Amino acid sequence: MDPEFEPKIIGFLCNWCAYTGADLAGTSRMKMPPSIKVIRVMCSGRIDPLFVLRAFLRGADGIMMMGCHPGDCHYQKGNYNARRRYVMMQKMFETLNLDAERIGLWWVSASEASRYVKVTTEFNKRIEKKGPNPAQEEIFM
Amino acid sequence: MKGTTLPVEKDLNQTLIDFLKKGLESGGFDAVLLPSRVPSGDSFAYLLIKNPSLLEEATPLPPVMPVQGAKAVSSLTQYGKTNQKILAAMRPCEIRAATELSKLKQAELENILFLSLDCPGALPLSDYLENPREKDKVFQEALENRKTESMRPVCQVCREFSTTTGDLHVGRWGAEKGRVFLISSSEQGKKIQETMGNQGDQSVDSWESKVKELKEQRLQERAQFHEDLKTKAGGPDKLLEFFNQCINCHNCMRACPVCYCRQCYFDSEAFDLPVDDFLKRAKKKGSLRLPTDTLLFQLGRMSHMVHSCVSCGTCEDACPMDIPVAQLFSLVADQTQKLFQYSPGRNREEPLPFSVYKEEEFHEVETPYRKTYSKGEGKNA
Q1: Are residues B198 and B271 both part of a single domain?
Q2: Facing residue for B354 by CB, picked from A81, A115, A137
């Protein structure tokens, strides 16, 4: 593990739960890794597999997808759709022998600032151990 | 399933033509959609035929598949359903793709009847164009000897070669010499047989058992083929190598029957970026390939349509660089479709995997929630 390595992680956070949760963590001055670049989406169901692929192939070290807990979606079913897409993506990565562990899905509610901190810290550690995404060096990618 | 038998005197094409002619004349259907040889003689196109005498020129089972039949059906029903009965004679993969398009609201299949057949596979298009006359013979021979070596790689390991998703099916397997089965695979198919005065209630058990046997063998070959491909193209380096020749022409996307979007994301302005963006990326890596994102196109297209992929191989035929795209897509398609127990084109009523969900499924991918709380770690978890 390279002590100098600071991962670049893209987080797709749903507006109603995860983003609010992250916001709460910030306003509560909780300690969390600075490596996560948050992109707010209106719903986790909005996360096209392409967003994740694009981030991955452009060299993001990790990609986090976060949404409301099942049953809590602001749009009733967006997170269920997100879960199906995520499962498909995982299978695709696995089949093509790409590093599926660089992608993750979590449910974080608006009040769960501590859970947000916990999962981001854990994921950040996981990526630190893995090192940089090899796609960063690929000229022909 | 039940059916009747048809005599094969000259060849299979002639038998099919005779049947279609009889059907058109007796009013079983009002028009026929099927492939015909183009006047120059070196390719095939779909024709919508109303005049029975023009059927003589048709080729219901062409050696290649330059246009995927589902595209023909889709273009036919752009403005909604037809009021006349159209019988479309196609390969099983074309019918399955048409079914997928109907789910995606890109085709209206009411009043369209499908005649499928035990598909021998199709020759690679680029091979065929080099010497059409010679290849016609190769195909005829392969058809008679039931060999698949000269067919496209995806056809050689196709598991849906005898899938009866249409209304009528022509079965070659297990039939007596000089005859083929004509199986009614739907109520409408039965009706056509009745209108034409065929005795459509004979047993087709010998066909069914032979298909079952062949399918088992094919499934094994397919699994082996995919296993080999996985070692050949798996991993970031090998995957990049696999697609390295891609010239970003998007032919695969345009030829693909289930890639239906009017405006593809990859043709959109999402990739029109200011030059500074490219320079920044080039600085980071040292250099940047242009046009950018060829691998993103391939994998992105895959993520968008792979659950509807019928492994028809049209993308591979369309590739000017001969990248075996269809093989890789069929590998990933098999895996991802299995997740949702989905088989594209199996049933018109079966919803697309991304259009439905269940509340209780795939919990294994979620980070446990209730569990954390019940263990008492919940207070700050």
Answers
A1: no
A2: A81
